[in-house]
Amino acid sequence: MQTLVQKLIDHGLENRVLTEKQLARVLEGSQQRRYGLVNRALKAGELYRLSRGRYLLADRFRDYPGHPFALAQAFVQGSYVSFETALAYHGWIPEAVHTTACVTPGRKTLIFEPGKFGRFTFHPLALHTGQFLELVQRIQITQQTMLVAEPVRALMDLVCLRKTQWQGLGWLIEGLRIDEEHLKSIMQSDIDTLMVVYKQKRVKSFLGSLARALDHD
Fold first, then answer.
1. Is the dihedral of CA 211, 93, 148, 98 positive or negative?
2. Separation CA 188–CA 105 (nearest Å)
3. How far apart are alpha carbons 34 and 48 in whole angstroms?
4. Domain definitions of the chain by residue range
5. What is the C-alpha to C-alpha distance for residues 193 and 51, in angstroms, rounded to an integer?
6. Which of 83, 114, 147, 152 could form a disulfide with 101 if both were Cys (CB 3.0 to 4.6 A apart)?
7. Taking the model in full, what pTM does it have?
């Protein structure tokens, strides 16, 4: 086992996403020595580079594999998983989704493709800052914390991203293949909450039409 790996385990960092600063605190010696240790670990398949300055130990040294939803936080802090990714996670759409699509609190669309973990996309939306995490759940899987939009929030984030006009429940049922029973589970309180989340009038209009189609007062 390489010195770098053993030191990370000794410091209890085997399950963490590692930054250059963390590596500098753990590894003794010069920057050149640290660079050499990191490169050797990468070539040996003991360390995996997620993006520039971010690393993850190989699964065989961890207590559990890194979950893509948790890794999303490492790429963009404060982001949350949404859109088709969250809809598939909650079982609202039947298709498998291979991209971890997220909403970012930043202003730029970002894309990361760290090999075996698939593709990560981060999209800014026109949201009111204080309402950014409304109807977003904090979930724990294998001791990893992740932020995932509830189904109705993921749906409306998708509407906001695509700038979709209301086309009736048929578009949701046939176009997105969302089961009607799932749509009927949307509460008026959810719609009221989301009305103050989005800035776009188009999204507010969609929410109003959705409420009427579901016979909410």
1. negative
2. 26
3. 15
4. 3-61, 68-213
5. 36
6. 83
7. 0.90
4 CB-side CA count, 13 A: 26
Cα–Cα distance, 36 to 87 (Å, whole number): 43
Structural contact between residues 49 and 114, judged by C-beta atoms closer than 8 angstroms: yes
User: pLDDT (tens digit, 9 = 90+) per residue, 139-196?
Assistant: 998 889 999 999 999 999 999 999 999 999 999 999 999 999 999 999 999 999 999 9
209 is written with which tokens?
């039409």
Strand blocks (E) in the chain? 18-19, 47-51, 54-57, 80-81, 99-103, 110-112, 119-123, 136-141, 144-149
- Per DSSP, the residues of 103-125 read E-SSSS-EEE--GGG-EEEEE--
Of all residues in the chain, the percent with pLDDT exceeding 70 is 99
DSSP for 145-161 reads EEEEE-HHHHHHHHHHH
184-209 pLDDT, tens digit per residue, is: 999 999 999 999 999 999 999 999 99
Nearest 10 degrees: Cα torsion 188, 170, 100, 95: 130
Give the rounded percent of residues in the chain with a pLDDT score beyond 90. 67
Q: How far apart are CA 121 and CA 113, in angstroms?
A: 9
How many Å apart are CA 154 and CA 125, to the nearest integer? 12
